[in-house]
Records
---
Amino acid sequence: MGPGTPAERAAAQLQMLRIAAVPVPVLAAVLELLAPLLSDADPATRTAAGDVLARLLAAIEASAPAQ
């Protein structure tokens, strides 16, 4: 694998992702699994987790039906 933490590598891969079709409940589950990384001891992991969570939240909000 390349340099950096697993979270940094995952964040770098997700940064290149432009389109993905996944059910909203799957995104919500991923949010739950990633949330603990926001308090990780490694600042790079915290930053990467925050970036990924922000993108996932934006995707969930964008998928909500207009009212």
---
Amino acid sequence: MIDWKKYDPMNPPQHWKVYLVTNGKRVISAYLDSDKVNGQQWWEEDQEYLFTGVTHYAEINLPNQRER
């Protein structure tokens, strides 16, 4: 089961770390970035596209080789 956390822009997760994120329609891997002009923005990990409307995120925790 995925441990989803509600995204709170006032208390954001770690920047530049890849998470699973959703906007209620899609689930993708993305990272959070920010700048002075645009504020906080989620970017798709592979395609470098802005992903808007993020409502929830989850840490990615894959099993290591020994657990398989």
---
Amino acid sequence: MPIECIHPSDTARPTWCVYPRGRQGPEHYLGTLHARDIDGFWYVQAPGERRISLADALRTLQFTRPSGRVAS
């Protein structure tokens, strides 16, 4: 599934909200991830997992959507 990473305007930290491409409504929200300064890993906030690469972090979000959210 193609995705879009949207950087929130209220932070200067390396944080992105992830949505399916072209669908940025709250009902399509897949989750949030951020780059960790300490160890270089990507942190996926919903499941609380660290991933070595951005691609792995994005795959985690695609398969662990917040409950009640369905991206079509």
---
Amino acid sequence: MKLFVISLFVWCSIFNQFDFVCCQCYPAVYCELLEQLDNKLSEESDLVSKLEPLFSLPREGHENLRGGVILSTWVESFKKAVTISYIHAEDMCKKRVSTVANNNLCDRLCAVLTAYKEDIVKIGRYYYDIQLVYSVEPRYYDIEGFESALNEFKRKKFERESEINNQLESMKTTYHQLVNEVNAKIDQSVIVQRQYLLQVKLFKKELETLFLQTKKIDGEKLYDTAQLDALNTALIALRGKQLELATCLQKLLSDIQAYNDQRINWAGILLDTTLPPRPSNKLGVMDI
């Protein structure tokens, strides 16, 4: 049991690698649960050491997603990289040859540019939400009914070690299935993320090219229909890749939610109760 307490400390310490740390007055749910379970077992029992890996996702997948860089730094770098010259693009719409077709096209372009800017923030939020699962354990009040169930667990004698051991193989199988789903989505997100960054570079290059092609009409530099069409084509390609990445990250978060639901279910099994899953818009981590 003493060896477990040491390993538990090391295990819990990995959750301090984000920009904020869970307040010490709110114990980490799964660390606390496994510690309380370990207190009830004999020195010879290895049940907790077998259960411990099931309550966190392997960090390799997350490291692949952020390229080994601290996530807060990586996200800011990513957001900067994908931020295009809105002023230049919007300026093209303002300094256009005025025709009905050009006016309508520029209205659509401005709407797409607005959506693009909004989704940069949304995608950044997705990355932070993913980081939460890997870096911060939920607190008592993040899981409905956990605190009262744990208090009841502390009062009772634990006589279900054999029962839990019999479920371990099934739990491990489920865990590996969930982890494989998460890691597959991470791999896909990394691929699309790179394609998106490449598309941003191509778009910026197209803006530069179009700027050099500006023609003077009545003494003023204006963009004609051909240039606006080129801008529209480049923006459609850029926006498409951005939406593809957003979709990948949404699917990744959905798989992470499935893992969190299962993790809560396992906690309920250990506590000999049923804990409700988190709402679909929550990750089972902590509300911020």
